[in-house]
Amino acid sequence: MSQVVERLRETTEPAPVGSPLRVAVLLPCYNEEAAIGEVVRSFRAALPGADIYVYDNNSKDRTVERATEAGAIVRRERRQGKGAVVRRMLADVEADIYLMADGDLTYDPLAAPLLIDRLVTEQLDMVVATRDGEGMLVRRGHMAGNRMFNHVIARLFGPGFTDILSGYRAVSRRFAKSFPAASDGFEIETELAIHALDLRLAVAEIAVRYGRRPENSISKLSTFRDGFKILWTIAMMHRALQPFKFFGVIAAGLAMAAVTLAAPVVVTFLETGLVPRLPTAVLAASVMQLAVLSLVCGVIVEAVSEGRREAKRLRYLELKGA
């Protein structure tokens, strides 16, 4: 490992070029009394110079008390949902490097220096810890959904990630402060990945051990409800970021339907000179009009999307990296 991690120290502002780096460990929590204390202490041991923040999301147990006892900086986010917590954390906390993890003791804190070292030495914007271990065998539905989402995102936005739903990642200040977070729930990881792919940012992955939750710690992720939200988020981001493709597919489908409806009407007209199925002809013409409108919408929204992408890129370039 290089000497990058040795540059960590405490400071109140982003570090100038060449000076030690400030790392913030961000832990969103909801009812993690059983694990949060050990998580904070483990990250403190792995990154002695880092600031460790625990953002409580309306926990009904002793999460706040346990985090405070362990020495974390405890803050609260009243809007329910992991996405809302991540949005607040990235907005409020000032650092050069942001290390995000969960407070359930499933991610290995000993891998934190590796993520940070890779991020800095290769001048990346995000390093994702891909999960490998017994914890991945607990809920097979989550594993199948994760594989499906990885495949869908790779097809729609391009390759780059093999575990988009991992909650353990390091991101640069540039990424954190230019990320327009919109999600409220567990779909936030999907949004992070798509944002990086859309702007063609430098990213990498590192395999880390993924363990089981403590016995009295319960997962908040619902396989079907949150899976549907993630799939919906992918669709909506595809519409927003690649509107010509999105509306183009709709236009192609409508055009094919219109041609299918119109074909027998045209054949009959060519044979007899009559249009006995007038309602079908009107329906085919209407569907074709919708296809044209969809294509026009794609062209217009594509121009708007390009403008938004340029604005996000300029915002990214305005910020200094680690």
UniProtKB/TrEMBL annotation:
The keyword Membrane applies. InterPro entries: Glyco_trans_2-like, Glycosyltransferase_2, Nucleotide-diphossugar_trans. The chain crosses the membrane at residues 246-270, 282-305. Keywords: Membrane, Transferase, Transmembrane, Transmembrane helix. GO terms for molecular function: transferase activity. SUPFAM superfamilies: Nucleotide-diphospho-sugar transferases. Residues 25-176 form the Glycosyltransferase 2-like domain. This is Glycosyl transferase. It comes from Hansschlegelia plantiphila.
